[in-house]
């Protein structure tokens, strides 16, 4: 059972941390290009015909694969199987924490399905649907976490309370982002909270179930848990700074091609039909001018 609880904290935390790093790279690249991360993907799909590979919702598929693997892990990590109600008299519910883990991972899978539907099924991407689905998942996650902790020790309650604080702040940011989707500051705060949530969840697995020293933590070690949490704040802020530096270097290396692509896409997005009509008129006028310069054929009356 200890391995199941360790994996139920560590592997989701690892995924959330990597997801936060990936989203940070997307935001910083868009920031360096002075653009919105959702701008290019919100263009009509008939314009994005350069490569079908870039149309694939990799993030959505990653959520589906990760959520499915974690779901199978929760189901099969129990020796006697995932059982909801036992056969005793009177019957009682079994494995409350594992069922909550299962609910969280199913929500992650469904969120990936929404991303794929928005990016690859609908005729035009619906960013509001994706953000709303993610915010709803965080709402449910917060409700589950509020009742997730068995008050078996003061340390376990305090460690999970810090995690609940991060999830609550993330819920507020995602809610505000529904009406301010193009705010880079909100997206940076959101990515920082994802990093905090993932790294602290991984650390929680080691604190509660597999301490590095080999000896379990005591309730009087709560102050050290607070100290470690503050270290996570500093380290994750440095991670964001490092990602920003790498993204800046990447942008400086490929900035000419990015500017050219951004100019072409912006030109189409603002006035595609009008520009095409103007170019067509210019081409027709050029053809008329060229024909006027050509020598005309002499008629039979001129020869006479």
Automatic annotation (TrEMBL):
Stretches that traverse the bilayer: 12-32, 53-76, 134-151, 157-180, 192-210, 222-246
Pfam families for this protein: DUF716
Compartments where located: Membrane
Record key words, sorted: Membrane, Transmembrane, Transmembrane helix
Tagged with keyword Metal-binding: no
Membrane topology per record: Multi-pass membrane protein
Protein family (similarity comment): Belongs to the TMEM45 family.
Name the UniProt record assigns to this protein: Transmembrane epididymal protein 1A-like
Species for this entry: Microtus ochrogaster (Prairie vole)
């Amino acid at each position: 059972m200890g391995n199941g609880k360790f994996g139920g904290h560590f592997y989701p935390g690892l995924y959330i941390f990597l997801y936060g790093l990936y989203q940070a790279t997307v935001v910083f690249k868009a920031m360096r290009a002075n653009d919105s991360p959702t701008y290019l993907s919100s263009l009509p799909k008939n314009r994005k015909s350069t490569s079908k590979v870039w149309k694939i919702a990799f993030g959505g598929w990653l959520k589906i694969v990760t959520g499915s693997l974690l779901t199978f892990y929760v189901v099969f990590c129990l020796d006697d199987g995932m059982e909801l109600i036992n056969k005793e008299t009177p019957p009682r519910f079994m494995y409350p924490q594992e069922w909550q883990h299962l609910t969280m991972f199913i929500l992650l899978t469904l969120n990936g399905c929404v991303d794929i539907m928005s990016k690859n099924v609908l005729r035009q991407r619906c960013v509001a649907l994706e953000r709303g689905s993610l915010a709803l998942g965080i709402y449910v996650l917060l409700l589950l976490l509020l009742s997730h902790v068995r008050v078996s020790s003061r340390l376990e309650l305090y460690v999970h309370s810090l995690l609940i604080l991060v999830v609550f702040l993330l819920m507020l940011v995602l809610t505000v982002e529904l009406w301010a989707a193009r705010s880079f500051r909100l997206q940076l705060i959101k990515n920082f909270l994802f990093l905090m949530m993932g790294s602290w969840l991984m650390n929680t697995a080691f604190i509660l179930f597999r301490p590095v020293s080999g000896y379990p933590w005591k309730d009087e070690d709560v102050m050290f848990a607070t100290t470690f949490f503050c270290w996570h704040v500093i380290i994750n802020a440095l991670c964001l700074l490092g990602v920003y530096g790498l993204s800046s270097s990447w942008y400086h290396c490929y900035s000419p091609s990015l500017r050219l692509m951004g100019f072409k896409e912006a030109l189409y997005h603002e006035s595609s039909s009008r520009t095409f009509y103007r170019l067509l008129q210019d081409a027709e006028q050029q053809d008329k001018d060229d024909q006027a310069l050509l020598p005309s054929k002499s008629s039979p009356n001129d020869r006479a």
